[in-house]
């Protein structure tokens, strides 16, 4: 498509203004247009990639429940027999519950139930459009899932990352308000989330899509694997970047149910973080349950040392695990063993 447009532009320069008058030139432009239209149409309707065997297995082993007519995908594994401990995992943007697959088995060796979901608009869950996606709704979906599983009266350990950190903050706020039917949170572990708007550094593509206005629908349709991978790879450390097959798994999760077309709507969570900072940061600052933060210090989205200094100042009672210097924004994928050890150290400390 780009090649055809470039050729046309060069021919225009060669022939000058005569193209407006010459019937041959006008005929040539019509031919280019007739060829370009179906090519563009085909490009915008490229089918999503096939699921890899590993991703297909993840989907097959999961289940769905319905929230207000929308299908939500989740995983629920039974681990240690006789243990009362339950952990619920909240994933980040723009990926899915599959982010946890590298530490999943390790968690089942410590917890009786290990539960994760794909938030609405992510992974294998429904991705309605148009739709007003919000952190509040995602928190309500987590609560609905636990009611569906009959766990609404159990004490829950929350383990979250990135976007999931903000959902956890809203759940914590509701827990602190003692609202009936809300989650009873036993502990909270956050990781590499932009919980402070003032230290959060969204990627350029996120800024464009978040505030693109009428351009956003065009940009989301033009997004492809190349654009996605080039945009996501820099948030990983230089020695821990995902393989091409891992990137394809992430992209397949996004493209499922045309998820690329709702990314601009999902990104409004960045604006919501600013608007509700007092509510969500306040919930953390006054926390009385055990709280921990696992941090990949090379994270360009939540940069060191600004983020960590503000975190320690705001939450002096929280403990922190700082992973190796080369670990970045996706610590559970980049250093699964280090991440798991840090989390187990926290869980076993109380």
From TrEMBL:
MF terms in GO: hydrolase activity
Q: Which Pfam families match?
A: Abhydrolase_1 (PF00561)
**In what residue span(s) does the AB hydrolase-1 domain sit?**
86-336
Q: Give the membrane topology.
A: Multi-pass membrane protein
- Record's keyword terms, sorted: Endoplasmic reticulum, Hydrolase, Membrane, Transmembrane, Transmembrane helix
User: Which compartments does it reside in?
Assistant: Endoplasmic reticulum membrane
Annotated organism of origin: Equus caballus
One cellular-component annotation, GO = endoplasmic reticulum membrane
Name of the protein described by the UniProt record: Mesoderm specific transcript
Q: Which residues cross the membrane?
A: none
- The keyword Hydrolase is assigned to this record: yes
In the UniProt record, what gene is named as encoding this protein?
MEST
GO-annotated biological processes: regulation of lipid storage; response to retinoic acid
The family line of this record is: Belongs to the AB hydrolase superfamily.
């Amino acid at each position: 498509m780009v090649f055809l447009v470039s050729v046309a532009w060069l021919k225009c320069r060669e022939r000058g203004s005569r193209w407006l008058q010459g019937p041959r030139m006008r005929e040539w432009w019509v031919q280019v247009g007739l060829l370009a239209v179906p090519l563009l149409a085909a490009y915008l309707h490229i089918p999503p990639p096939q699921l890899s065997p590993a991703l297909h297995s993840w989907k097959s082993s999961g289940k769905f429940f319905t929230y207000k007519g929308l299908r939500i995908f989740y995983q629920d594994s039974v681990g240690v027999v006789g243990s009362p401990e339950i952990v619920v995992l909240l994933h980040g943007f723009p990926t899915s519950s599959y982010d946890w697959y590298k530490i999943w088995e390790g968690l089942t060796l410590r917890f009786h139930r290990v539960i994760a979901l794909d938030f609405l608009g992510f992974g294998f869950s429904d991705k309605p459009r148009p739709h007003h996606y919000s952190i509040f709704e995602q928190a309500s979906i987590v609560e609905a899932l636990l009611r569906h599983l009959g766990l609404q009266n159990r004490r829950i350990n929350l383990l979250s990352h990135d976007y999931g950190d903000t959902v956890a903050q809203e759940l914590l706020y509701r827990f602190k308000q003692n609202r009936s039917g809300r989650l009873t949170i036993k502990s909270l572990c956050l990781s590499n989330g932009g919980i402070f708007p003032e230290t959060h550094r969204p990627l350029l593509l996120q800024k464009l899509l978040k505030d693109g206005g009428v351009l956003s629908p065009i940009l989301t349709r033009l997004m492809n694997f190349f654009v996605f991978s080039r945009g996501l790879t820099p948030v990983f450390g230089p020695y821990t970047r995902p393989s091409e097959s891992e990137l394809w798994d992430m992209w397949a999760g996004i493209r499922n149910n045309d998820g690329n077309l709702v990314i601009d709507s999902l990104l409004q969570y960045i604006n919501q973080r600013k608007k509700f900072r007092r509510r969500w940061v306040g919930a953390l600052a006054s926390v009385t349950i055990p709280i921990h933060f696992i941090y990949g210090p090379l994270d360009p989205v939540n940069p060191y040392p600004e983020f960590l200094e503000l975190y320690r100042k705001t939450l002096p009672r929280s403990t922190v695990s700082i992973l190796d210097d080369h670990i970045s924004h996706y610590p559970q994928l980049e250093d699964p063993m280090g991440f798991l050890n840090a989390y187990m150290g926290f869980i076993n400390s109380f």
